[in-house]
Amino acid sequence: MSELICVGAISGSFGVRGEVRLKSFCAIPEDIEQYSPLTDEAGDKSYSLTLTRAIKNGFAARLGGIETKEQADAARGLRLFARRDQLPSLPDDEFYHADLIGLEVYDTGGTLLGKVKSVLNHGASDLLEIHGSGLKATVLLPFTLSVVPTVDLAQGRIVADPPDGLF
Fold first, then answer.
1. Has residue 166 been placed in a domain?
2. Does 106 share its domain with 149?
3. Per-residue pLDDT at 130 exceeds 90
4. Strand 104-107, strand 157-160: pairing
5. pLDDT for residue 139
6. Which of 69, 101, 113, 129 has the most Cβ atoms closer than 10 angstroms to its Cβ?
7. pTM of whole model > 0.70?
8. Do both 16 and 80 map to the same domain?
């Protein structure tokens, strides 16, 4: 498990006074401010964060070290990370996406199906993007209790009961 979890990203500048457009990946989007200071992916640079207002698809925010529109434009694409110990602990049936990525997926008979490449959500529920050497194409596995009855983070594996014909 990674010590840093991606909690947001900068999507560009907002206005001309150095504010940025911020997309929050938190379950409660406003909570991203509580995890300040945030870091870059390497953990090298630290940024204080203050939300200034809600805007379409996110927030306008002040990011430490960014004072001009040009600096805010240059920060576009910057992903912001919080330390795992800053984040709330989850109930037994919930997981951080970062913890699922890279886990091996087995069927209920013990056959390796592939590995989780990413976790997607297009509105209805989460989907696990599965890649593997035996697969012709990417498989999107619904991440529901009936399809994925077991997630064992300690063993680094998921046991799935996929619908017929999916694999």
1. no
2. yes
3. yes
4. parallel
5. 92
6. 113
7. yes
8. yes
Q: Let me know whether 50 and 104 are in one domain.
A: no
Count of structural domains, the chain: 2
- Token readout for 167 is 């694999």
Tens digit of each residue's pLDDT (9 = 90 or more) over 88-118: 888 888 888 888 999 999 999 999 999 999 9
My answer on whether 16 and 74 are in the same domain is yes
The residue type found at 2 is S
| Type of residue numbered 117 | K
* All residues at 6 or more sequence positions from 68 whose CB lies less than 8 Å from its CB, including other chains: 18
Reading the block at residue 110, the tokens are 């013990």
Q: Are 36 and 49 in contact (CB under 8 A)?
A: yes
* Residues 46-92: tens digit of each pLDDT: 999 999 999 998 999 999 999 999 999 999 999 999 998 888 888 88
pLDDT at residue 16 tops 80: yes
Please give the residue range of the domain that contains residue 23: 4-86
Helix (H, G, I), strand (E, B) or coil at 62: strand
- Nearest-Å Rg of the Cα atoms of the chain is 19
C-alpha 126/C-alpha 93 separation (Å) is 13
Structural domain ending residue among the three candidates 86, 120, 136: 86
Q: Tens digit of pLDDT for each residue in 24-45?
A: 998 889 999 999 999 998 888 9
Tell me how many degrees the CA angle 13-51-125 measures, rounded to the nearest 5. 90
